[in-house]
Amino acid sequence: MMDDSAHSRTAFSETLSVNLTLNGEPRTLQVAPNAVLLDVLREQLGLGGTKKGCDHGQCGACTVQIDGQAMNSCLRLAVMCEGQHVTTIEGLARDGELHPVQQSFLECDAYQCGYCTPGQMMSASAMLEDDRIGTDDASVKEAMSGNICRCGAYKNILEAIQQARVQLGHDATAARKEGVA
Amino acid sequence: MRTFAYSRADSVEHAAHRTTPDAAFVAGGTTLLDLVKLDVLRPSELVDINALPLKSVEWLDDGRLKIGALVTNTDLAHHPEIKQHYPVLSQALLAGASTQLRNMATTAGNVMQRTRCPYYRDPAAACNRREPGSGCDARHGLNRLNAVLGGSEACIAVHPSDMCVAIAAIGATMTLSGPDGEREVAFEDFHRLPGDTPHIEHDLGDGELITAITLDAPLVPAGSYYLKLRDRASYEFALASTAAQLSLDGEMIGEARVALGGVGTKPWRCPEAEAALVGQPAEKATFERAADIALRDATPLEHNAFKIPLARQAIIRALREATRLARQTGEQEGQA
Amino acid sequence: MNDLTQSALTKPRVVGKRTPRIDGEYKLTGRAGYTGELHADGMLYGYPVPATIANGVLESLELDDALSMPGVVDILHHGNFDTLHRSPNSMAHGDMVNEVRLPFEDERIYYHGQYVALVVAETFEQSRAAAQRVVARYQMEDGAIASLLLTEAEGELQDGAGASRGDPEAAFGGAEVTVDSTYHIAAESHLQMEMHATLAEWRDDGQRLIVHESSQGVFFQRNAMARVFGIAQENLEVISHYIGSGFGNKLFMWPHAVATAVAARRLGRPVKVVLPRQQDMTGGGNRPASRQRIRLGADRSGKLTSVIHDSTTETSLVHQYVDTCGSATPSFYACDNVSTSQRVLQVNHGTPCPMRAPGEVSGIFALETAMDELAVELGMDPVELRLKNNAELDPASGLPWSSKHLDECLTSAAQRFGWDKRDPVVGSMRDGDEIIGYGMASCTWSAGRQPCEARVELRADGSLFAACGTQDIGTGTYTIVAQAVAELTGAELSRIEVKLGETGLPAGPLSGGSMATATVLPAVAAAVRDALDAIKEVAVGSGGAFEGSDADSLDVERGGLTDGKRHVSFAEILGASKLSSVNGKGSAAPGNERSEYSFRSFGAHFVEIRIDPGISRVRVARVVSSIDIGRAINPPTARNQVEGGIVMGVGMGLLEKLDYDPRDARLINANVADYIVPTHADAPDIDVELLDYPDFKHNEFGGRGVGEIGLTGVAPAIANAIYHATGKRYRDLPITIEALLAS
Hints:
The complex is a heterotrimer of chains A (181), B (336) and C (743).
Chain A: E1 16-22, E2 25-31, H1 37-44, E3 63-66, E4 69-72, E5 85-87, H2 100-108, H3 117-128, H4 137-143, H5 154-167, H6 172-180
Parallel strand pairs in A: 1-5
Antiparallel strand pairs in A: 1-2, 3-4, 3-5
Chain B: E1 5-8, H1 12-16, E2 23-26, H2 32-37, E3 45-48, E4 57-59, E5 65-68, H3 73-78, H4 80-85, H5 87-95, H6 99-104, H7 107-111, H8 163-170, E6 172-178, E7 181-186, H9 187-190, E8 209-215, E9 223-229, E10 240-249, E11 252-261, E12 268-269, H10 271-277, H11 284-294, H12 307-335
Parallel strand pairs in B: 1-3, 2-3
Antiparallel strand pairs in B: 4-5, 5-8, 6-7, 6-8, 9-10, 10-11, 11-12
Helix pairs in contact in B: 5-8, 10-11, 11-12
Chain C: H1 4-7, H2 24-29, E1 44-50, E2 56-62, H3 64-67, E3 72-77, E4 108-109, E5 115-121, H4 124-131, E6 135-140, E7 156-157, E8 163-165, H5 168-173, E9 177-185, E10 197-203, E11 208-213, H6 218-229, E12 236-239, H7 255-267, E13 271-274, H8 277-283, E14 290-298, E15 304-315, H9 329-332, E16 338-346, H10 360-378, H11 382-388, H12 406-417, E17 430-431, E18 434-446, E19 452-459, E20 464-468, H13 477-489, E21 496-500, H14 516-540, E22 555-557, E23 560-562, E24 567-569, H15 570-576, E25 581-588, H16 593-596, E26 600-612, E27 617-628, H17 635-654, E28 685-690, H18 714-726, E29 732-733, H19 737-741
Parallel strand pairs in C: 1-13, 9-29, 11-12, 15-16, 20-21, 27-28
Antiparallel strand pairs in C: 1-5, 2-4, 2-6, 3-5, 7-16, 8-16, 9-14, 10-11, 10-13, 14-15, 17-18, 18-26, 19-20, 19-25, 22-23, 23-24, 26-27
Helix pairs in contact in C: 10-18, 13-14, 17-18
């Protein structure tokens, strides 16, 4: 038999309560069990910066950071985020200052239509903090390949990421040389 | 996307006692939610197992490495022990999916991946795997992505995992936990060939949960290589892939392991090809002979015949690269 | 004619200079509101139910289960849909649509994914869950045509879609050297990142319709909707502030928008529909497959004597779309004997529509591959062959070009690429496991221009405001409008606000065909001048900052006026006269210059491919391009367009193909994983040079537009490079692994 105290479950039409930290703010949300994080962000919370491009983990437009890691919010139930830190594009800039990745995207014209752009930047900003991923251009391109840009602004996105790396204090030039060798 | 009940399990024992027959465990969710949205999977309940303590990677006394079911693909790929002792697994993991998906997907979830056959993923199509007895639209349809090895009249769906191909080459044991307790299954026996019952994909009983995968002790000294061939450079399932591991005894091959992806209905270990490598010179002719043996039983369909020569190329190149790396390792150890 | 030489902007201060996008911060912080994420009070969610067959009849719909589900409000379908009117579908009247058939108009199923119902519910989750519970039963019929490429059928010849001069058949028959080849290109998906989306709301007791649509042409959609619903244009507003691109499939209205507006009217609440990706791909437009035969005749010196280009493309059973492949061919090369023809074949697909460089990109693949074949036949360098046949006048019209520098594009790109290091012997250039192939092709796109209106305000708070009912689809229109205003007023860019994408604004053009820049900027300039005239009148009037001066003696400088001694800002001038603002209106249209010159952009792509034959892998390593687009108004965004076109060309050349099941015409790869487009890792090293020859015959800013040209010529350059590496001529796109293995 079930031990309901340890294993409570919901009926179909009920909503569930989920506690999470969203862009630095503790929040308690009421969501349907089948509500996907992406849809909750866009439709329930008015955080439209996270985009829907395929809804199946195939394009990366919905990328958010969960506990600092880039993830597809279209393949995550909102209720699964209990206790987690979720950061969306709306939380990337801090204290009114653009994040270095945002600033370099602006300067490098690393976008066109702008629809994949929040996802690109959420992946990029997580990647720049992840020392397990190589810093050479080829490693960056491979690590970023989960973010499709149909406008094809890949060249400028790569340039923007490597420029942001410098601004964040990592020595990209040395790293890029190392990658070539 | 249909509605379902949701619960969180806080212990393996609780998780194993599923409340409804068509409940499903959810960890990374990357396969499950994709298919629930497509209305291909229709669980009445999801049991969230992310809180279970199955996230460790540890050496056993017998020299094997035990990987918790919930270790993410990213963490496993970058784990120092994996990178050092099972580089082929690290390479295979990093060749799969995208950064985001690897951050979400778990080791056990990767094993439980469903096929990418387009007819399986479309509820309007005939598919014996999705709906037993409905037929197979792939057999005479657009079967470019389908299997040339291990298929049956009923099903020719490819197992899509890269990770599993590497694990097949390494050799491993699955630990399953269920209402009747814990049991172990050899990795090579876990995935089923489709036969007449393609809907039974694996050896997992009702209420059973994968809790760990234990890799066989690493092959030493060895070179290993995972080669994935696909249309574009990244973020695509394999059309053909090969995980190769071998050790050298001078110019001769000592031990050899070969497994194929993208071409088989399950992660495809090639024992006869391995046997044809052992004790032979590590050279092109040997690799070609092994590749021919590995693909001896391959059966082409209208649109996937190219996979046979492509897989042959993947095997030969992967063996060549594994040999090169084995020589490098040997030289380094010689210097040391 | 327009006196363009007088107003020509020869020494610009802002135009032609690198300018970060003025909408950039909105896009980069998530504050730019794309249609799919907009909300309205009381809004409902619609989710279409797509047909699962491509040919047959909808026999029944079982709706009870779906209607009983939580939150479901209504289900629209053939049995209960409103009676509406079809749009006249006229380009001239601005009411063209992408599919003239109205949603749920009859029970026949013409293509996979055709809407059979629209479920409307309180939440997105509820609408999707219920849509999956609708049971549709069909009488499926045999005989679905799955693709032009799977049939011998010829299609219907399109009168007026071809051109002819001289006697090309006779010249071909008598030519010393000939090429006669047939080319096939698979149907492609636009796969724009933002799916089609509509948010419709009726106000004023159902008298007025407000539609937010991800649209490349708000005025076209307004006009079409007015005809469909039989209401006055004045009672209809279409808004599209940010568009997650379109590449042509958002130029004209689709049936989902009509269904959404009907649902909103019936339910008296706003309704939003965002097409799921699968439906966006089945019913939201595609580039039709093409079959083309090219015959070239030349003399031994390489001079073309005959060009015959016969094309067939697909259309749907519910709409006539002609993707004219040969439209660039008559103007491409100097040749006295040229003919083109166009046929169209109906297939069981969702309706094709323009996709980036429509028609021409397919035609140029065929023509520029054929030119490479001719170069091989002649034993001639392909660059030299093109230079030899460079047309000094437009051979189609006999008119001089407004400005053409194809020869410089060819030589400059060849030099930067290192074409002189190319060993012409097939397969001769190697690097380890890889064979290196060098290939090239010319590219072109016509330079059009449309009528346009604009409005400009100079405001007392020091800001400037410009408005036009065109759109920014990611090409940078917001920014170039601001640049034009800054240029002509001397004001700081940061003080300029630009509003686009509303039918409440002065009429603006479609964002398509590389026409927006040349169309919009002259109208904005006219509006600025009108506003400047107005503020000068204010300044010299009673109580004005320059009271009593002659308006003609005042110069515009740094966001104000000066008489040579004193500079007064626009804000101060308005303040002195107690005015909140002055308004300027402007309009502009092409004039007689179109009968005196031909307008077309040209360029050249040089491609290095690397093939690893041991593993059948081909990758585009490097692309070097020189493109002449007149003046680039904002060089980084213009270059970005070309770079993006090159990436899309890599997809066209090697990856992209819509797969329709030959048995039943169902589209089986309608998703972003199985329809394969280039990723970051597929992007080659790209070096784009934009030549800087302002074309003042086209407009006073000298820009000719840049959206399409970068894509044209990329796929043939890739195919030609693969020939150089392998000796195998690939005439079918995409060039797949199986095709490589077959060689």
